[in-house]
Design brief:
This protein is mainly α. The chain is built from five helices and two strands. Strands 1-2 form a two-stranded parallel sheet. α1 runs antiparallel to α3 and α4 runs antiparallel to α5. It is globular.
Length: 150
């Protein structure tokens, strides 16, 4: 499971679709409607939020908003709390950069056009649920990309 902190506009069509499905799964997990995934570290962001379900709803709405700009038809009614006002979740600058680098590695092979489009980005944006602060990548990141940050 990957719950991208990046703004959804950086994702290609496959990534945005996968993100929609994984965020819907996160909603089910947060709601307690599934046995699996309860201890997935990326879901801690929602679990420890003062309003977990509302935070997931806000996250899903951000993905849905991006889908509308691309004229995709994601089912808005699947978002249980779409109009929530929530406190932002802190996100380290290095986590944001880490995720962008990881995404770019994937896009380079999968969707070279989107990779090239993203190369021109000067200042990274996070999903609107997140507030960017100084700091290192999250401890759950274990792949070789983290090595350049530590």
């Amino acid at each position: 499971m990957r719950i991208w902190s990046l703004h959804p506009s950086y994702l290609d069509w496959m990534g945005l679709g996968a993100q929609w499905r994984e965020a819907l799964l996160a909603q089910k997990v947060t709601e307690g409607k599934t046995r699996g995934w309860k201890n997935h570290p990326q879901l801690d962001r929602f679990k420890y939020h003062p309003k977990p379900m509302e935070a997931v709803g806000y996250y899903l709405k951000g993905i849905h908003d991006e889908s509308l700009t691309r004229r995709y038809k994601y089912n808005y009614s699947k978002i249980l709390y779409p109009d929530s006002v929530v406190d932002l979740i802190n996100l380290s600058q290095d986590q944001l950069q880490y995720e962008f680098d990881l995404l770019q590695e994937r896009l380079k092979k999968r969707t070279p056009e989107k990779y090239e489009e993203n190369r021109g980005i000067k200042e990274l944006r996070a999903h609107s649920l997140f507030k960017v602060i100084p700091g290192l990548p999250e401890k759950w990141e274990k792949s070789y990309w983290v090595k350049k940050w530590v």
